Amino acid sequence: MKKSLIVIDDFYEDPYKVRQYAFSQNFNNPSYVTGYPGVETNSLEPEKIKHIAKRISSIIGKKLGWPPDRPQGVFRVLQKQEEKTQTNLVHIDPCSWTGVVYLNLPEECRGGTSFYQHKETGLKVMFPQKNPEVQQAMVKYNLSYHELSAKTLKDTLDLSKWDEIERVSMKFNRLILFNGGKFHGVPRVFGNTLATGRIAQIFFFFEIESIDEDGNMTIPV
Ligand SMILES: [Fe+2]
User: Fold this and answer.
1) In sequence order, what DSSP letters do the residues of 146-208 get, joined into one string?
2) Of 203, 5, 20, whose CA–CA distance to 103 is shortest?
3) DSSP secondary-structure letter at 91?
4) What residues contact residue 210 under an 8 Å CB cut-off, 6+ apart?
């Protein structure tokens, strides 16, 4: 059976130092996701990403890659006032593994990450396209991948259209790794300032099926 959710506690040796580093960076509105309400830093330095990717790769037991032009290892802050404007409440991240490191201090921790099942279609996952659950639904509804995707994502803002099927609680310095294609969201946002909001570090990794001699990777779709 393929693992799709892994929880690792005490991920960083010195999480206070990581927090300090995060808050020494500039936080901006990300331009690559339309309507995303939070703020985030730029990608981590390539050397740091490589080091973390190696650790995560040994946890998962797979070779991992990431497109260099996409954000990686960013620190993201969401605040209470953004809760109502969260345009991607239930969503997927099109990657093999999403990594989230919770970096709120122990006394601040609440909520976490929730996973959902779409009531209308029964889907719990929407990526990759070759996922058997996705393939079966395409046949059942006689829809293309794009059409099926649209059928689920139209309900992204309406929690009444989803069942929460799993929740990982937030814990300081906890890393969660999950198939980015699982429908997921942030169940609770808090804090009124950058320093007291929900802060997490986010990674998006792909399992690499092959790397050619020029170092180009084939990413499964
Ligand atoms: Fe996500």
Assistant:
1) HHHHHHHHTTTT-GGGEEEEEEEEP-TT-EEEE-TTB-EE-S----SSTTTSEEEEEEEEEE-
2) 20
3) B
4) 217, 218
- Residue 180 Cα to ligand 1 midpoint, Å, equals 7
Q: Are strands 162-169 and 198-207 parallel, antiparallel or unpaired?
A: unpaired
pLDDT in tens, 149-205: 999 989 988 999 999 999 999 999 999 999 999 999 998 889 999 999 999 999 999
Task: Please tell me the distance between residue 137's alpha carbon and the centre of ligand 1 in angstroms.
Answer: 22
Element (H or E) spanning 98, and its range?
strand 97-102
pTM over 0.85: yes
Amino acid identity of residue 128, one-letter, is P
List, as ranges, residues with CB under 5 A of the ion ligand 1.
Answer: 93
